[in-house]
Write a structure and sequence with these properties.
The protein is of the alpha+beta class and about 100 residues long. The protein has 2 helices and 5 strands, in the order αβββαββ. The strands form 2 sheets. Strands 1-2-3 form a 3-stranded antiparallel β-sheet. Strands 4-5 form a two-stranded antiparallel sheet. It is globular and about 45 Å long.
Length: about 100
């Protein structure tokens, strides 16, 4: 894996550990791994099938953004959106249909 900053995760073992942490917490952090001076926190929005259909993220300057503090808030927003998405079905034409309990 090619580093794009001094903080980019390039070792497979380190990446595996990071992915495991993301799976268990539901939150991903970019700590200047892509761009020096920029950090990000993100969480998935899950569809009714449990697969990611979107994501919520907050990015900003590392000096001005406390990603550890924002992590729980981003996860809470993603969970709320997941509940909303799971409550609606969208057909191939883009029409929304309210899902009823039990299907």
């Amino acid at each position: 894996m090619t580093a794009v900053s001094p903080y980019t995760i390039t070792r497979p073992g380190a990446l595996g550990r990071e992915l495991s942490t993301i799976r268990s917490t539901g939150v991903a952090y970019d700590r200047e791994e892509s761009t020096i001076g920029v950090s990000c926190v993100a969480a998935p929005v899950l569809g009714i099938d449990g697969y990611a259909v979107a994501a919520v993220s907050v990015s900003g300057t590392t000096a001005g953004l406390d990603v550890r503090r924002l992590g729980p808030a981003v996860r809470t927003v993603a969970l709320a959106l997941s509940r909303t998405v799971a409550g609606h079905a969208v057909d191939v034409t883009g029409h929304h249909h309210r899902r009823h309990a039990g299907g």
